[in-house]
Amino acid sequence: MSAPTLPHLSSAQWLRKNLFRGPLDAVITILAGAVVGYVVFRMLRFVFVSGRWEIVERNLTLFMVGQYDRTQLWRPALAVVISAALAGLVAGVIRRRQAAAGRLPDPHLGGVRKLTNLSGRLWPALVGLLLLLGLTTSPGPWLVAGAALLAAAAGSALGRRAPRGFAWALAPGILLCLFGLVAFLAQPLEWDRWGGMMLNLLLAGTSIVLCFPLGVLLALGRRSQLPAIRAVCTGYIELFRGAPLIALLLMANVALGFFVPQELAPGKVVRAIVVFTLFTAAYIAEIVRGGLQSVPDGQLEAGKAIGLSPVRITAMIELPQALRNVIPAMVGQFISLFKDTTLAGAAMGFLDLLAGAEAATSQPAFRGQGLIAETLVFVALLFWVGSYTMSRESQRLELRLGVGQR
Amino acid sequence: MSAHDHSAAPRAMIELIGVWKRFDDFVALRDINLSVAPQEVVVVIGPSGSGKSTLIRCINRLEKHDAGRIFVGGTELSDDLRNIQEIRRETGMVFQQFNLFPHLSVLDNVTLGPRQARKMPKRDANQLGMQLLEQVRIPEQAQKYPGQLSGGQQQRVAIARALAMRPKVMLFDEPTSALDPEMINEVLDAMKDLAREGMTMIVVTHEMGFAREVADRVVFMADGEIVETGTPEHFFTKPSENRTKAFLSQIL
């Protein structure tokens, strides 16, 4: 049986069928069209005519790295290049594993096609990058972007040739490298005085890495058979879900001094990371618990029937399926965390991306000119690039892990 | 020989003595006594809700019996987790809904048990796994995922997965009830092969043809009790109990 073919519609027919089927449809279409047209017109006019983007151009460095010593900018540049190389390395190793398992969707693809595929996949990030490069007035960022691309390609080539068994060392190795990079960046400027996008990325990245294992442990603890563990985990989760994030940040900033002597209190960045980690872990725990409940009882019974221990049943049968089922919700939580890092600026006085954008409008050159819209649009766009990229990559991961599942 | 040894003349592979099981007010098993000899194939039939599934699920402790004693291979089933796991490793189980692990390839489904519960090296486990997949006649599906297989193929993988632990006993819980009719025979054939090779089996099924052809003994259950047991010939031609006659008249 062949699939029924849709009748081909001319554009006039399509319009009538979808937008002007009856008088009410016509009115709605015209009204909605007018509203959308007006909004788009105002936006385009703002972006290309009335918007005064000089404030963003002049403050680009401030928005990216805050108060970082301008003679030390080679450090963040090097960090970007090394991160790109690491990302390439991971991609290369993954690609080789897929090739070895015969699960590569398109094993014999030319270099050009590969490049267009990759840019199609990462187009939001590409848009953000081109925008940043378009706004720069110096050649430095172009050099960094070029070097980062080369480094990613080199890393990928290396990853595909890496010896077997290397994959096991990969995750801890990468974490160690990233830790080293942060230490390296913190040399000229201790991280409590960091700012700009760099600070938002540090807070979000560290908290995501830390809150995930904590959240999984809490989820497992909440269903533990030991009442004490269950009570502690449930209490923790409900406590942190019941408090506003900004209140926790303010408490970490101000009230910590009441409980801990000044010299023992950790720095502000550490406090912020701890708050973000503890807060998000509570949400991750509930998401993972939902995932665990979605695994059918039959899976546990099958694991028991072949004589696996309870720990192995959880680790090898329940968790892999549960985590796959909750990827969308979990990445949603990470995206939320990424954007919420701006609250640290508001509550703890960091000059992060958002706070920097506000601060720029009171610089002597721009004071009192009502340029807040320009800076906020720019900040929003950068956060959108990060969030949308995470969202798209998570959908890819979901599809990939769903191979052959019902 | 352990102190638990239960010395019946030809030692029973499975022995249930006075086993009771309740779910709240509902009595699922009522004073069950059953002994299965090595290499014997016992088919358990009966109306739904008669306790057939509960009976075999008690043998590998997927359900905990309330009273009575259960011996598998001469070892008594106790509350000790190590003992339970040891008995489960000697007891293969095949479920109505297959319960394959959807996130693992077919071969990994089969080798997970030997590798994780028996610490078998990966290479040996894969070799064993391929051998078992050949035995159930689907070696070509080894790298696929369960969701890509038909129901009959999935159930044969489930049989291979259970066999990978080299069990002394195989328990089948309505293995063909969830299958489309055209796939039932491929699963029954795999089970017949097993019976011919001398595997001790307890099979809960509605496949009367299988019972007639393969069973050494048929056990008829109703309302949590064993009503009648006998050879297939005796059972299908001249059953002695009224409940058996009523059941047979409904299904034949």
Q: Count the DSSP helices of chain A.
A: 17
Radius of gyration of chain A: 25 Å
Structural class of chain A: mainly alpha
**What does the overall shape of chain B look like?**
globular
Number of DSSP E strands of chain B: 10
Q: Helix fraction of chain A? A: over 70%
**Strand content range of chain B:** 15-25%
Task: Quickly give the structural class of chain B.
Answer: alpha/beta
Q: What is the string of SSEs of chain B from the N terminus onward?
A: EEEHEEHEHHHEHEHEEHH
Please mark out the parts of chain B with pLDDT under 50 across 5 or more consecutive residues, or reply none.
1-9
Q: Total number of helical segments of chain B?
A: 9
Structural features, described:
The complex is a heterodimer of chains A (406) and B (252). Chain A is mostly helical and 406 residues long. Chain A has helices spanning 11-18, 23-50, 54-65, 74-100, 111-121, 123-135, 140-161, 166-185, 196-222, 227-241, 245-259, 268-293, 297-305, 310-325, 327-348, 353-360, 372-401; one strand at residues 351-352. The longest helix of chain A has 30 residues, at 372-401. In chain B, 38% of the residues lie in helices and 24% in strands. With 252 residues, chain B is an alpha/beta fold. In chain B, the strands form two sheets. In chain B, strands 6-7-8-3-9-10 form a six-stranded mixed β-sheet, with helices on both faces. The interface between A and B is medium-sized, with 25 and 32 residues.
